[in-house]
Amino acid sequence: MTELRYQLLPNRDPEAADVLVLPVPHELTVSYRAGTHNGPDALLAATAQLEYYDEDLAWSPFQHLGVSVLPTLEKTLWERPEDFHRRLGEATAALRRDSLLLCLGGEHSITPSLVAGRMPGPGTVVMLDAHADLRPSYEGSAYSHACPGHRLRAAGHRLLLVGVRSLMDAEAERIEADAGIDCYMARRLRQSAAWDALLAQLAALSGPVWLSIDMDVFDPGQAGSVGTPQPGGLGWYDVCELVEACLANPAVDLRGADIVELIPDPAQVTDMVAAKLSQRIIACWGRAQGYENGPRNGSQTEVDYH
Q1: Cβ neighbours of 178 (radius 10 Å)
Q2: Sequence-distant (≥ 6) Cβ neighbours of residue 68 within 8 angstroms
Q3: Fewer Cβ atoms within 10 Å of its own Cβ: the N or the C terminal residue of the chain?
């Protein structure tokens, strides 16, 4: 098997790495387009074409951070969904807490289990998604890709939904009635007042936070190879600005992030968007943690620039 890693970077020892990347190619409940199980490999392969200087943040995170891509975590053939999700939560709970955990899906059903392991107490989940994902169950499963928002709220986490443009009437009613859910619909964010309010809310976050990005939050014209694409959506720089606002605040205790619902794209456009998004998350977290000032734990990396 080919070693999974950020291309051009040596895979660090997980006990010494600053960033832990966990591929979770779980695909069991997709209801439209299949192929999300190939998402982690496609994202990692696309990193071979990334320049490692972050042009917006003006530093090169991979000169200062060590990255370790962990072994893939998959559902076994006869494993029940509830047992797999329990095992996924236990696996993330066992990982070092002083590192950034970045998980690569797979379908969006993995997020609540990741959060359960990394953020067992109440926190805030910032979920960028075209869908509200607030159904208690879908097609007979509480572990569906349509249910992560419901499972997160049931676990006591506050939800900040961003970019939503597809939901059922019952989900809309729940958003209206539940003070623990803030939702910014995609079209509303075209208004400068709504955009500024969202940025202010992200900048004011504190305490434990998890960042979940479903690739269908993007306008399909920019990243269309996803499990359930929807018209409209956010652009690349919109998402970058949201990530930067979320992670810049030193009061935020980021417990981890995930990028989900990528389906490998024959044109490799969506693959590259997801790969560069992973880089931006790492760069924002590293800057907030002070890595701009030099490496920690002997993690400085020689980068073979192409």
Answers
A1: 14
A2: 11, 12, 13, 14, 16, 17, 19, 20, 21
A3: N
Classify residue 59 by its DSSP letter: B
**Total number of residues shown for the chain:** 306
Do the strands 158-164 and 124-128 form a parallel or antiparallel pair, or are they unpaired?
parallel
Summarize pLDDT for 196-247 with one digit per residue, the tens. 999 999 999 999 999 999 999 999 999 999 999 999 999 999 999 999 999 9
Residues 279, 64, 257, 95: is their CA dihedral positive or negative? positive
* Pairwise CA distance, residues 301 & 10, whole Å: 8
| Whether 211 contacts 281, CB under 8 Å | yes
Q: Scanning the structure block, which residue is given the tokens 């439209």?
A: 32
Predicted confidence (pLDDT) per residue in 130-143, tens digit: 999 999 999 989 99
Q: Which residues are part of a known binding site?
A: 108, 129, 131, 133, 214, 216
Per-residue model confidence (pLDDT) at position 298: 47
β-strand pairing of 100-105 with 252-260: parallel
Contact 281, 55 (CB under 8 A): no
pLDDT exceeds 90 at position 303: no
Considering the four listed CATH numbers 3.40.50.1820, 3.40.800.10, 3.40.50.970, 3.40.449.10, the one that applies to the domain covering 19-293 is 3.40.800.10
Binding-site positions for Mn(2+) read 108, 129, 131, 133, 214, 216
Is 259 in contact with 210 (CB distance < 8 Å)? no
**d(C-alpha 285, C-alpha 199), whole Å:** 17
Dist. CA 134–CA 145, nearest whole Å:
10
